[in-house]
Amino acid sequence: MSSSSNQPTSPKQSVGPDYRDEKQKPTATVSTAVPFENVHTLPQTPQLIALLTMIRDKNTDRADFIFYSNRIIRLLVEEGLNHLPVVEHAITTPVGRSYAGVQFQGKICGVSIMRAGEAMEQGLRECCRSVRIGKILIQRDEETSMPKLFYDKLPEDIADRWCLLLDPMFATGGSAIMAVDVLKSRGVPENRILFLNLLASPEGIENFAKRFPQLRIITAFVDQGLDEKNYIIPGLGDFGDRFYTM
Ligand code: URA
User: Fold this and answer.
1) How far apart, in Å, do the first and last CA atoms of the chain sit?
2) What pLDDT, in 10s, does the model give residues 38-65?
3) Is 238 a catalytic residue?
4) Non-local CB neighbours of 146 within 8 Å, separated by 6+ positions
5) Residue 50 phi/psi, 5° resolution?
6) Which residues line ligand 1 (CB under 6 A)?
7) Catalytic-labelled residue, pool 20, 62, 140, 211
């Protein structure tokens, strides 16, 4: 699905609550459907589409880019946490009544793919206080053009944890595949890895979902495709540059 004149377009849909008349709902481009059960796309609500519109806009300045990205990251983390197991947990309220609730059982950690993935660490920390966070640096090898692992620092007991893998832009999936291979080599079972990203390409998803069928992908939006430089389109440009340096 590289850029060309017959590039498939993303679907358009009216956005807004079900009770509102269709004619009163604006139309917007929504996430492309993908046929993989392990891909979970955030509900295409007016809020999410508005937040994505802000960060996709080339005229959005860095402060707003950070602010609105952080709001989406928070939604992704909350959705990711929904996939972790809980056990029944009954409590008593201050008015003496019981409430049949649940509580999370297990240990988690974040693993960010440097540099852009580090932008998602704050959102994870806001939801999970004092969460352990590991880091993986993968860069393209100048000689072979293949992704190469340069650095990793992961919690020692990572094999016992649920891992939230963080990288905002899921383009070809080359770095993410290598990062998952590192996690698996440290004993993390595939079904305990959740890959959180803001924008995904159908190509990256297909590569990844077939290779790691038990790993869950949580994304805000599956975009149209990749251009000749492997940028996601319509995309938002270079996430790391817009978050850190522009
Ligand atoms: N990384 C980015 O920052 N943007 C893309 O479009 C693809 C990868």
Assistant:
1) 29
2) 999 999 999 999 999 999 999 999 999 9
3) yes
4) 140, 174
5) -65, -40
6) 116, 169, 171, 231-232, 235, 238-240
7) 140
Active site residue 241: yes
Q: What are the boundaries of each domain within the chain?
A: 11-244
**Mean pLDDT of the residues in the chain:** 94
**Whole-Å CA distances, 16 to 20, 44, 54:** 7, 9, 18
Count of helix runs (H) and strand runs (E) in the chain:
6, 14
Mark whether 242 is an active-site residue: no
User: What is the pTM for the complete model shown?
Assistant: 0.94
The answer to whether the CB of 108 falls within 8 A of the CB of 131 is: yes
Distance CA 39, CA 219 (A): 8
- Which is higher by pLDDT, 246 or 239? 239
Tell the residue number behind the tokens 């056990």, with chain if given. Answer: 87
CATH number for region 11-244:
3.40.50.2020
